[in-house]
Structure formats: C-alpha cells, structure tokens
Amino acid sequence: MNNNQTIEKLMQMRMGAMANLHKQYISNNQMNGVTPDEYVSLLIDHEWEDRQNKKIDRLVHQAGFRQKASITEVDYTTTRNLERNMFNRLATLDFIARKENIILTGPSGVGKSYLAQALGQQACMMGHRVIYATTSRLFARLKLAKADGTYLKELKKLAKADVLIMDDFGLQAIDNYAREALMDIIDDRFNQASTIVSSQIPVSAWYDIIGEGTVADAILDRLVNSSHRIDLKGESLRKGFLKSE
C-alpha cells in the first residue's frame, strides 16, 4: 500500500481532515493495537466532525451577526424580567420546528440584541440557516433591490432562512416601501419559518408605527399571534460596563 498515494487521493476527494489524521498516524506509528474497523471509524469520525465545524463556521459567517453571543453566557443575575426556565426552553430551539416567532422588547441596553443573537448562533450550531439584520438596514437594502430588479431574489433569500432576526424594529419611521417589504417578509414566512424581532417599542405601539390599518392588522396577526414574548425591564446593562472601564 502506498500511503502517499492514499493521502493524495483523500485530498483530491476533499477529505483533508481524514488525510491529515491518516498522515499523522503513519508518521507517529500510532496504528499498532488498532483494528482496521476501529481505524476506519476513527478517520470517518474525524472527517465528519471537521465538516460539521466548518459548516457551523460558514452558517455563523453567513448570518451576519453583529456580535458573538452564547446561550451559556446569558446573564440571569441582573434583574431585568428574564425568566431562566422560559429562555432555556427557547434555547432548545423547539420554536424553530414549530415555526413560531419570538418578540423581545424593552428599553435600550437591557440585552435584547444579545439574546436574539444568542438564539441565532445556537441555531447555527444546530445546522439552521440564520439571517441577522438591523431592521432599518434590511428595509434600505430591499428598497435598493426594488430599484435594481432583485427584490424578489432578496425576498426568496429571506424566506429560505430558518430564522430571521430583525433587530431594532421601529427605531425609524416605516414608509410605504418599508411597510410593503415588511408585509412581504412576514407573509412569506408565516407558518413556514421563525422570525425573531427585538424592539425598544412595546408591541402595543406597533400598530401605529406600521401604519395603514389593514396592512398593520395583517402583519401583526401573522407575527404576534404565533410568538413567544419577552418584555425586558430595568436599566441599561451598558452602564455597569462603562463604570468598570
């Protein structure tokens, strides 16, 4: 058996992790005491884990998160109306399988964006496609897409995401373009995929923010009625961070 040829063939088949581990075992003479079945299983497991890690890295990169966030680092010690058991249930990601939405509201700095992105990055870890965007930039991008003829393509991309995170909803006025885009996004995803929305504005005020009564009714009916809601309270967590600087 020509080990160099075997390694080269593995590389050509894009099994780099398997090739590198095989080369390492040969170089270090580590194959003694390992049965052929065990060795093949070892190589396959190593290749599979490497591909899974690369897939997760790719999903996280494509999601476009603004910051690194982790479920394990969520702060429950600060009083902000975040119930641990409820959020841990959301962290199991069952809401994705049920095509349910999540709405996070509360004043600036209480961690809405972090929680949304922690759930999003957890979803990536489990192989789900996620798109993160601040709502104003998302609407701006879709407005440009209408002008250059790629609007339907952009909507299709959003619809394919298992989780769409719309951060900072309602911070800027919603004009006719944004209202139509929001309706298209929510309508495409209704009962098909999960949407996470974070906002400083309470849900009770969203009707007026969206405007156009019938459109607002349709959007809120699809978005809010199938959602888990977390209404955070308290002072900005950034104040404590700034004091410690």
Pick out its properties:
245 residues; alpha/beta; Rossmann fold; 2 domains; 5-stranded parallel sheet; 12 helices; 56% helix; elongated; disordered C terminus
Write the layout of secondary structure elements.
Elements (H helix, E strand, L loop, with lengths): L2 H10 L3 H12 L8 H28 L20 H8 L2 H4 L3 E5 L6 H14 L4 E5 H14 L2 H10 L2 E5 L8 H14 L4 E6 L6 H5 L2 H11 L3 E5 L5 H8 L1
Parallel strand pairs: 1-4, 1-5, 2-3, 3-4
Helix pairs in contact: 1-2, 2-3, 3-6, 7-8, 7-9, 8-9, 9-11
Task: Describe the protein in words.
This protein is of the alpha/beta class. It folds into two domains: 3-62, no CATH class; 64-244, P-loop containing nucleotide triphosphate hydrolases (Rossmann fold, 3-Layer(aba) Sandwich), CATH 3.40.50.300. 56% of the residues lie in helices and 11% in strands. It contains twelve helices and five strands. Strands 2-3-4-1-5 form a five-stranded parallel sheet. Helix 9 links the parallel strand 3 (163-167) and strand 4. Helix 2 crosses helix 3, helix 7 packs across helix 9 (176-189) and helix 8 (151-160) packs across helix 9 (176-189). The chain is elongated and about 75 Å long.
